[in-house]
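$ ./design --mode recover --in tokens.txt
reading tokens...
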């Protein structure tokens, strides 16, 4: 599984409606945080992210894969407020969201 594919699974776990809507609009962009980027506290260099612009404000989901395929996710709640975090394993995301055409 590529890091981009993992980003889609992470986005589905955070907000499946948002991810499907932005994918349909072809507005999802994948990237990796670089040292010069301005990111919220708690997001580190080399975290990956999925960003979309839904017409109101950009929405960003940051994630990183750690030891034992543990995925830490950081994302903004709807509206303003502190960033939320969630923890998954790659296996959990795979089982819950991965589908093939078959």
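writing sequence...
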């Amino acid at each position: 599984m590529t890091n981009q594919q993992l980003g889609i699974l992470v986005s589905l776990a955070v907000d499946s409606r948002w991810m499907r809507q932005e994918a349909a609009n072809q507005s999802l962009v994948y990237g990796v945080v670089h040292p010069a980027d301005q990111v919220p506290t708690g997001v580190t260099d080399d975290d990956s992210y999925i960003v979309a612009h839904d017409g109101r404000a950009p929405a960003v989901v940051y994630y990183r894969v750690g030891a034992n395929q543990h995925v830490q996710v950081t994302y903004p709640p709807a509206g303003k407020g502190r960033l939320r975090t969630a923890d998954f394993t790659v296996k959990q995301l795979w089982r819950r969201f991965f589908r093939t055409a078959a």
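exit 0
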